[in-house]
């Protein structure tokens, strides 16, 4: 899984570079904005995806893939921070350690679910119409589970009297992951719906 994460981050980095090498003109941003209207957090969607969308990549599938990769990157970034906090609390034998450890376990699960979703989306592209419904169901299930994990982490802090700044920082970062994952799921559903509609119109 570590090797997988490194390769995904390298691919994500290449998309960041591609986006900065050729500045996004109005067509690219307009496409992102139109797609992001289908999400629950359109401003966040536009903020993260418009700066990374390549002007030559303007399809629902490519945008859904980018959204998944950005969500994974945010989840890994958050995991690194929560891992550091958990390690410090464990050394101090702080009573808040278990709550942070539980959150970290859920973040780890979310990272795995997002990683699997990216792999499955690539399989959809490779297979075309073959096993589309199976692949689609897998991605939707994994993204929904990743979203549940993130929300579970946030809810887990409700009854714990943790230091205000650390607690607020963890919740803010995990909330960002949850919202990005929600947006990624919405964009994937938009791509899947268009893919199914296109397949239905091409059948004899």
Overall description:
With 204 residues, the chain is mostly helical. It has one domain (59-202): Up-down Bundle (Butyryl-CoA Dehydrogenase, subunit A, domain 3), CATH 1.20.140.40. 82% of the residues lie in helices and 0% in strands. It contains 7 helices and no strands. The protein has helices at residues 2-21, 26-36, 42-50, 60-92, 97-127, 132-156, 164-202. It is elongated and about 55 Å long. The protein starts with a helix and ends with a helix. The model is unreliable at 1-25 (pLDDT under 50).
Strand content: under 5%
Helix/strand order, N-terminal first: HHHHHHH
Mean residue pLDDT: 83
Q: What class, by secondary structure content?
A: mainly alpha
Task: Give unreliable regions as ranges.
Answer: 1-25
For the CA atoms, what is the radius of gyration?
A: 18 Å
Question: Which overall shape is indicated by the principal axes computed on the Cα atoms?
Answer: elongated
| Annotated CATH architecture | Up-down Bundle
CATH level-4 homologous superfamily: Invertase/pectin methylesterase inhibitor family protein
Short description, anyone?
It comes from Camellia sinensis var. sinensis. With 204 residues, the protein is mainly α. It contains seven helices and no strands.
Question: Which descriptors apply to this entry?
Answer:
single chain, mainly alpha, Butyryl-CoA Dehydrogenase, subunit A, domain 3, elongated, disordered N terminus, signal, secreted, PME_Inhibitor, apoplast
Write the layout of secondary structure elements.
Layout: H1 2-21, H2 26-36, H3 42-50, H4 60-92, H5 97-127, H6 132-156, H7 164-202
Helix pairs in contact: 1-4, 2-3, 4-5, 4-7, 5-6, 6-7
């Amino acid at each position: 899984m570590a090797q997988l994460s490194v390769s995904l981050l390298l691919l994500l980095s290449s998309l960041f570079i591609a986006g900065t090498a050729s500045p996004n003109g109005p067509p690219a941003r307009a496409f992102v904005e139109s797609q992001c209207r289908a999400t629950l957090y359109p401003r966040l969607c536009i903020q993260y995806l418009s700066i990374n969308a390549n002007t030559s990549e303007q399809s629902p599938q490519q945008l859904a893939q980018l959204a998944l990769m950005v969500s994974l990157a945010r989840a890994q970034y958050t995991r690194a921070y929560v891992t550091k906090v958990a390690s410090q609390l464990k050394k101090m034998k702080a009573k808040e350690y278990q709550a942070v450890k539980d959150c970290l376990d859920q973040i780890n699960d979310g990272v795995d679910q997002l990683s699997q979703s990216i792999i499955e989306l690539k399989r959809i592209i490779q297979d075309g119409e073959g096993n589309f419904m199976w692949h689609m169901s897998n991605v939707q299930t994994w993204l929904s589970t990743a979203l549940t994990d993130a929300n579970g982490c946030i809810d887990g802090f409700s009854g714990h009297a943790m230091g205000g700044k650390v607690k607020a920082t963890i919740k803010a970062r995990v909330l960002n992951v949850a919202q990005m994952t929600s947006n990624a799921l919405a964009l994937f559903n938009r791509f899947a719906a268009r893919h199914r509609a296109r397949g239905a119109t091409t059948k004899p």
